[in-house]
Amino acid sequence: MTITITAFERSPDGGKGLARDTRVRWALEEVGQPYEVRLVSFGAMKEPTHQARHPFGQIPTYEEGDLVLFETGGIVLYIAERNAGLLPDDPNARARAITWTFAALNTVEPPILELGNARLLEGDKPWCKERLPMVEDRVRARLEQLSRRLGDADWLDGAFSAGDLMMVSVLLRLKSSGIPDEYPNLAAYVARGEARPAYKRAFAAQLAINTGKPPAG
Ligand SMILES: N[C@@H](CCC(=O)N[C@@H](CS)C(=O)NCC(=O)O)C(=O)O
């Protein structure tokens, strides 16, 4: 059955891979599932047709036959449950990999999003300069903990999993801030994720949409 995901017609980041369809593309590339993409404009995302797929009028969505999903955590775990490659077979290791997926979305991503909002949406407010260091420190507190747990391992819990895919995706949102570079093992972890052939294919595919040029190779 054909898998169709939705992505921005024009991503606000111009193709840096920060739009969340990249996570879903990456998961599909990791497990070797071909997919199609329906591009949506900001206007179309708020129309009833798209809102029937995504109640919050966002991207990405995932369609396969009668199944329609939204939320990248749900989508990536659905892909991981049904295909080999993103979750270990051992039940305990599998549960831990799922836990890391939630940790990425529920514990690490929120302060990172807060920082993005502080920079992009509140930059012109008189109190922004005072608030920004506090928001940055909340991000650092999480990265410090994550860095300690990762130590000198390649991935969070044994082999690369959906948990790493989500954690690297979340950390990539911080790249332009330079904060991950304060934690060399996390910077190396993110680089390892970006070096995976599946990530490269996902990144190239979303970039091609935003530049209008087909992916190289
Ligand atoms: N928690 C959601 C967040 C989805 C989300 O924020 N999508 C962004 C693009 S990365 C979006 O559609 N933004 C436009 C909007 O909210 O109107 C997920 O992980 O899927």
- Beta content: 5-15%
Order of helices and strands: EHEHHEEHHHHHH
Q: Given the structure, what is the number of helices?
A: 9
Q: How far from one another are the termini?
A: 26 Å
Write down the overall mean pLDDT: 96
What is the tally of beta strands?
A: 4
Overall spatial form: globular
Uncertain regions: pLDDT < 50 for 5+ in a row? none
| Unique ligands | glutathione
Describe this structure in words.
This protein is of the alpha+beta class and 217 residues long. It is 56% helix and 9% strand. The chain contains nine helices and four strands, in the order βαβααββαααααα. It starts with a strand and ends in a 6-residue tail after the last helix. Residues 19-20, 45, 57-59, 71-72 line the site of glutathione.
Task: Describe the structure concisely.
This protein has 217 residues and is an alpha+beta fold.
Describe the structure using short key phrases:
217 residues; alpha+beta; binds glutathione; 4 strands; four-stranded mixed beta sheet; 9 helices
